[in-house]
Design a protein that fits this description.
Helices cover 37% and strands 15% of the residues. By secondary structure, the protein is of the alpha/beta class. The structure holds fe (ii) ion.
Length: 342
C-alpha cells in the first residue's frame, strides 16, 4: 500500500521542479525514492544535509531532502495534500510552518522531543517545534554613522530622516518574518504605516547578504537583516562586513524579533515513527551540536546546548514578547503588497 502511494506520487511529480534555497543557489530535480524518509526543507541546505546524513549514519534510515523556500514549500505541502510524499518539514522561519499547521496537516510532535527544546520554543498545540533561532539585527557602517545616531527602535526607520538611508530584502521569507513579528508586537495600523515608510525610505536588496554588502560598501549607512550572515562573514574573510558592526535593539523592540526555524511531522506521513525519530534527533544535544558545528551561526534551541561562542547569548537579546505561533504570513504578504514592497 505504502509503496503504491509513493509510486503514484512519484509518477505525478515526473515533471522536474526547479527549486532554490535561501540566498539563491541551484535547483534540484526531485523524485521521491521508495523507503527513504522524505524531508521537505527550506532551512539552509548545508544544515539540513548534515542532519540527514548524521541521522542515516546513526539509524540506518535512508533520507531524501527536497529543497525550496519557506512559502513555496509550505504551499506545496498544502497543495499535495494527503498524497504528499513529505514526512518531515523543516523551515527557515516559523510562518511557513503555521501555514501548514492551520491546514491541519501536522501530527503532534512527540512530547519527549518537545521536552528537549528550550521553554517557549515549542507551541502549546504540540504541532511543531523550534529547531534553530535567528535574531533580527541592524547592521551599520562605522564610517558612515556613529552609534549615537542609530535608531532607537525599528519603528524610527519610517521617519523621513531615514529616507534613502537604510536597506533590507523585503522579498525574502526572512524579512517577511520580521514584519510578521512587528504585526504581532504592535497592530495592523502601525505595521501598515511602517511599511509605507519603508517603501519610501528603504533601498531594496535581493537578500540579507546583499543588504550587508551594501552597508559595508557605504551605499546605505544601515540595514535590517538576521544576525547569522554577519557572523559567518566575520568568521571568514570579512569581505562583506569589515566596515560594519551589529546593533541589537533589545528592549523588547520589534527590531529585536527572534525568528524560529521550525520542524514538524506531516499527518499524512507513511513513515511517522521514523519522522518523529528524525525530529527527536535534530533537537537532541547531538543534533543541535551538528547545527552549531555547521558554521551556520544560527542559535541552538536545545536545552543545555551552547550556541557559537561568537554570538551574544540568546537569553540576553530581550526580544519582543511575540508568540511565534500566531505569526500570520498571509496578512504580512497582503500588507507588503499594498505598500508596494512585493
Ligand atoms: Fe537564511
Amino acid at each position: 500500500m505504502i509503496m503504491k502511494r509513493r509510486s503514484a506520487v512519484a509518477a505525478l511529480l515526473a515533471l522536474p521542479l526547479v527549486l532554490s534555497a535561501c540566498g539563491g543557489g541551484g535547483g534540484d530535480e526531485f523524485t521521491a525514492q521508495d523507503g527513504a524518509l522524505q524531508i521537505y526543507s527550506s532551512q539552509h541546505r548545508n544544515v539540513t544535509d548534515a542532519w540527514a546524513q548524521a541521522f542515516t549514519e546513526k539509524t540506518g534510515i535512508q533520507t531524501q531532502v527536497r529543497e525550496g523556500q519557506d512559502s513555496s514549500m509550505g504551499q506545496m505541502i498544502i497543495a499535495e495534500g494527503d498524497s504528499s510524499p513529505a514526512d518531515v518539514f523543516l523551515t527557515e522561519n516559523s510562518p511557513a510552518m503555521t501555514l501548514v499547521e492551520r491546514e491541519g496537516r501536522l501530527a503532534k510532535v512527540d512530547a519527549a522531543t518537545r521536552a528537549q527544546v528550550r521553554t517557549g520554543m515549542a507551541p502549546s498545540t504540540g504541532d511543531w517545534t523550534a529547531i534553530a533561532a535567528r535574531s533580527t539585527v541592524l547592521v551599520y557602517n562605522t564610517e558612515k554613522i556613529t552609534e549615537a545616531e542609530l535608531p532607537k527602535s525599528l519603528l524610527d526607520l519610517q521617519d523621513p530622516k531615514w529616507k534613502g538611508k537604510w536597506g533590507a530584502a523585503p522579498g525574502g521569507a526572512d524579512f517577511q518574518a520580521i514584519v510578521a513579528g512587528l504585526l504581532a508586537n504592535t497592530d495592523e495600523a502601525t505595521t501598515k504605516t511602517w511599511l509605507e515608510g519603508m517603501a519610501t525610505n528603504a533601498q531594496v536588496y535581493q537578500n540579507n547578504i546583499a543588504t550587508m554588502k551594501a552597508v559595508n560598501a557605504g551605499e546605505v549607512p544601515v540595514g535590517i537583516m538576521y544576525h547569522y550572515y554577519w557572523y559567518r562573514d566575520q568568521a571568514g574573510d570579512k569581505q562583506g562586513s569589515a566596515n560594519t558592526k551589529l546593533h541589537y535593539f533589545g528592549n523588547k523592540d520589534s527590531g529585536a524579533f527572534v525568528s524560529l526555524s521550525a520542524g514538524g511531522v506531516l499527518k499524512s506521513s507513511d513513515m511517522p515513527k521514523e519522522a518523529q525519530q528524525f525530529l527527536k534527533f535534530v533537537t537532541s544535544p547531538e543534533g543541535q551540536k551538528i547545527l552549531v558545528d555547521s558554521g551556520s551561526m544560527e542559535y541552538a534551541v536545545g536545552k543545555g546546548v551552547a550556541s557559537d561562542k561568537a554570538l551574544p547569548p540568546l537569553d540576553k537579546l530581550n526580544p519582543p514578547p511575540v508568540d511565534p505561533f500566531v505569526l500570520n504570513s498571509d496578512k504580512v504578504i497582503s500588507l507588503m503588497t499594498d505598500a508596494g514592497l512585493l
